[in-house]
Amino acid sequence: MPPPTGGGTAAVAPTVNARRTVPIVPTMKIVDLEPADPRIADVLPVLRELRPHLTADLFAQVYDEGYRQGLRFTAVFDDNGRCVGAAGWRVQVNTVSLRALHVDDLVTAESARSTGVGGALLAHLENHARERGCRELTLDSGTARTAAHRFYLRERLDITAFHFVKQLDTP
Prior knowledge:
disordered N terminus; about 25% helix; single chain; 6-stranded mixed β-sheet; Aminopeptidase
């Protein structure tokens, strides 16, 4: 069953991937987390697989400041209450997309990859985007993350731009 469009929490029974036989997480619970939710601490180990520079203090600081700018986190928990996937996202209004849900972070725990977690999380975020009147769902991905790129292409995301970065001296 697809995640409900009402936001909040969704219990999802993933579908079998018709392209290959993979172990499937039996059921998963997708939860939108507020900064004060104690489960936010469960997100950090999964998020660190993508962002190893994050410490607990830095993550708390980023979420505190980012939340005021629209940053939200959504997590996927398995039947045992273990976080197996996470996404950091925000709605952005700009001249490119007009209104888009931008995914800052999308990561599935290495132990849960190819089990339907990433697809369910992406579908949940797509529902959020539609509910908020977004025209697009966007994300950036590091150039070396080829396995993630294959996943995004399977999920029907298109490569439409390059993201350029210039490191600045810190004050």
